Amino acid sequence: MSKKAQGKLVIFSGPSGSGKDTVLDKVLAREPSLRRSVSFTTRAPRADEINGVHYHFLTQDEFRRKLSCGLVLEYAEYGGHFYGTPKEPVDEMLAQGETVILKIEVQGAARVREIYPDALTIFLLPPSLEVLEARLRARETDGEEDVKTRLAIAREEIRRKDEYRRHVINGDLDAAVDEVLAILGGK
What is the reported pTM? Predict the structure, then answer.
């Protein structure tokens, strides 16, 4: 009986409003063999989000307990909330030879690259900061202060884009999806 080859880890980052979820949803629809890690977060769910599908929504105390038990691969604080990657499911999928996509913030991505230096890293960019701001405002899920905070964080994240091997500009959704799929191996 032959052992399965270790899977491939993909780190997918970009500022809030760059379209990470939308692009990944379309990538996964076109290539269902890819696996997406579902992150923990302490922020409240948006109206269209389902616990366990989009995120595992936790209280601050629940998150801290998982962190102290070593159940979190990486974590970051973003806009006053914690986000983290559950360690066990990622390890299991990689051991089964799966390609696992982590949609994570740049802080967490830096930590994961230390553990998995061969990870494929992709940074999703908006066509401009003006487009990014328009997207954030169109969501109508954040107040003015939250939008300003997300834009300030986005500027810092975009400055770190060169920490990633590949960059994709999400100006045209279908073109961005095609480019991500091509980067993932022509799928």
Answer: 0.86
